[in-house]
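Ops channel
N.P.: pipeline sanity check, posting one input/output pair.
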């Protein structure tokens, strides 16, 4: 943190207020902006940070309009169509201040899922482009203390030595399934900015000679290029495509996707010419600490300041983690080091900030989460065992095939040998071979489908909340399973309108299906696969999310739940995590627990929360003993159960 962020004595807030433009009826100067600082923040340090962000950006408080997702929305100069929440304004200034202070222009936006990271990353990009243009025109800027560049004794690099870098076009790299969502987000903010979107995901023939900024083609610097990780990787390898491209600012969504040094994606990101890098990911705590180091390597790949690298780069981060793993330092010492290393470039605080009443400053309705324990009948358990025995018996079957058959058998009894797991991540139009219908008189869905019929469908058809019909997002791991759920609801529960959304759905139809789901005035279910619906989508039209089968990766499961538990949710969201004992879900739960046993306490150092490390170890040991006891007393047979039992919150591996 820079020195001028130190806590100072409270002064009359009016002394530091930014008076909104009287000529603009959409803004207000009635003191509500000051009240946001003085009345809501109960932490002096955060109070000061937010007040400074408003003042230095020149932000204005906007008059409320229907559809606002918060009680107070603000405008940031240079983004006329933007309406931002207070924590997003602070996030923009966090990065901008770092750049104005001539620190390495890198940042990790790692706040909680659902807090609007997309919009404040885009706001940062647009604001940086705006101030570069304003400075070049000789105008005064609030971020420079109301001065123009010519009035400064020391000119920040962004307006001097690095000014050409920030005149380059920008690039946004995202997972393939999020290209359309990011396209919508960019288009919502760029009107009246002079910036244009170029979708490289669709414009496959463009190369560096047509994309790079030059003095003869300055308009190219006003472009934002959008592409998926897989497309960039493929086209970077071709010298006639994206090799040689130069960008000024890059946004990298779901940056944890590039976490292996041996992949072509990692290599292409390391070599990418984009000095200012902004990574977006779920809270680092949800990923392993080992994964975090390679992400930091390509975040800092164009930083040349050795003092910065030695103090805040990937090497000291790796050293702290390695020291803890080898027992050279304690876990407490490790997370203290990590906090010191990452804090200057990591945004991870507003999810925990409380207002004066003790409530979260960023208000999202509290999630009600249920762990539903289900059991197979002896006949079902025997059928699953036989399917897996057959899969293992084929000596040509790879381990992936066996795992795939196991997943199919444990959720949808009628699917083994009738599904493939591959999804075309690039186009979404690849052939997915699986059945689309079954005989309603002899189908066999298993315990999860019995629970859907007996427990969940009646909830969806029950009383609406606030006059809005109940809607659900249902996630099944594989496309065949999603089609099976769709068929099941369509066939047996006519009161529910089911919509299936997976890789076989053409890209051009996906937005239409999401809009249809949001606008329906009757109970509905959107059935997704994690490959397309587990991240990035905003599905707050639903107030229920069902995880039909636990994910191998706990963070991906949390990401899926966050599709409905996010900013904009106006009802109390409910998550239903199904766990069929004696199958895939047992193994997934073990992975959830073992994954967190080392990383959790270290990563919690970033957000200041503490918990007992031994409690986590004891919980895992207790679960293992329970499984051993069940196997010994029941001889491996599962006890039949149709509707299952609620086990309260889903704490399998949840280390928060």
């Amino acid at each position: 943190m820079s020195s001028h962020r130190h806590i100072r004595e409270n002064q009359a807030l009016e002394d530091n207020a930014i008076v909104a433009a009287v000529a603009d009826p959409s803004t207000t100067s009635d003191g509500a902006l000051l009240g946001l600082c003085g009345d809501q923040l109960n932490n002096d340090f955060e109070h000061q940070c937010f007040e400074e962000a408003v003042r230095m950006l020149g932000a204005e408080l906007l008059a409320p309009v229907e559809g606002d997702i918060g009680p107070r929305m603000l405008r940031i100069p240079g983004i006329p169509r933007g309406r931002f929440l207070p924590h997003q304004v602070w996030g923009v200034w966090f990065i901008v201040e770092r750049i104005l202070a001539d620190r390495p222009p890198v940042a990790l936006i790692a706040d909680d899922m659902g807090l609007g990271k997309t919009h404040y990353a885009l706001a940062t990009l647009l604001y940086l482009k705006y101030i570069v243009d304003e400075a070049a025109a000789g105008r005064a800027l609030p971020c420079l203390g109301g001065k123009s560049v010519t009035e400064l004794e020391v000119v920040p690099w962004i307006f001097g030595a690095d000014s050409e870098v920030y005149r380059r076009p920008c690039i946004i790299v995202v997972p393939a399934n999020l290209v359309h969502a990011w396209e919508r987000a960019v288009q919502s903010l760029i009107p009246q900015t002079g910036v244009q979107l170029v979708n490289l995901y669709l414009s496959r023939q463009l190369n560096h000679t047509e994309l790079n900024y030059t003095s003869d083609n300055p308009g190219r610097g006003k472009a934002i290029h959008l592409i998926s990780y897989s497309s960039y990787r493929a086209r970077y390898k071709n010298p006639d495509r994206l090799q040689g491209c130069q960008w000024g600012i890059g946004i990298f969504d779901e940056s944890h996707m590039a976490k292996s040094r041996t992949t072509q994606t990692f290599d292409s990101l390391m070599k990418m010419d984009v000095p200012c890098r902004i990574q977006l990911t779920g809270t680092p705590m949800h990923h392993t600490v080992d994964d975090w180091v390679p992400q930091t390597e390509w975040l800092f790949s164009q930083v040349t300041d050795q003092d910065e690298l030695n103090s805040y780069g990937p090497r000291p981060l790796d050293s702290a983690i390695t020291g803890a793993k080898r027992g050279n330092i304690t876990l407490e010492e490790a997370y203290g080091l990590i906090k010191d290393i990452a804090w200057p470039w990591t945004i991870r605080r507003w999810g925990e900030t409380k207002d004066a009443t003790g409530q979260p400053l960023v208000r999202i309705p509290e999630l009600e989460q249920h762990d539903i324990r289900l059991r197979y009948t002896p006949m079902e358990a025997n059928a699953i065992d036989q399917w897996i025995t057959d899969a293992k018996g084929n000596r040509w079957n790879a381990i992936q095939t066996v795992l795939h058959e196991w997943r199919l058998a444990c959720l949808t009894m009628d699917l083994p040998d009738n599904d493939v797991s591959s999804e075309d991540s690039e186009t979404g139009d690849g052939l997915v071979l699986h059945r689309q219908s079954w005989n309603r008189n002899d189908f066999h869905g298993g315990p999860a489908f019995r629970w859907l019929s007996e427990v969940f469908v009646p909830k969806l058809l029950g009383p609406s909340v606030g006059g809005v019909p109940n809607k659900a997002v249902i996630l099944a791991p594989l496309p065949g399973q999603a089609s099976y759920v769709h068929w099941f609801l369509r066939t047996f529960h006519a009161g529910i309108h089911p919509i299936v959304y997976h890789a076989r759905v053409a890209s051009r139809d996906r937005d239409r299906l999401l809009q249809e789901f949001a606008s329906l005035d009757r109970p509905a279910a959107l059935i997704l696969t994690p490959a397309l619906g587990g991240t990035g989508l905003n599905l707050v039209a639903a107030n229920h999310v069902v995880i039909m089968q636990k994910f191998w990766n706990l963070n991906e499961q949390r990401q899926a739940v966050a599709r409905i538990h996010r900013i904009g949710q106006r009802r109390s969201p409910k998550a239903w995590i199904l766990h069929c004992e004696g199958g895939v879900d047992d193994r997934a739960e073990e992975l959830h627990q073992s994954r967190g046993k080392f990383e959790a306490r270290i990563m919690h150092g970033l957000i200041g929360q503490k918990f007992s490390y031994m409690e986590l170890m004891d919980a895992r040991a207790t679960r293992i003993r329970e499984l051993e006891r069940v196997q010994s007393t029941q001889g491996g047979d599962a006890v039949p159960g149709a509707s299952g039992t609620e086990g309260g919150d889903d704490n399998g591996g949840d280390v928060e």
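N.P.: looks fine end to end. The two ends are 27 Å apart (CA to CA).
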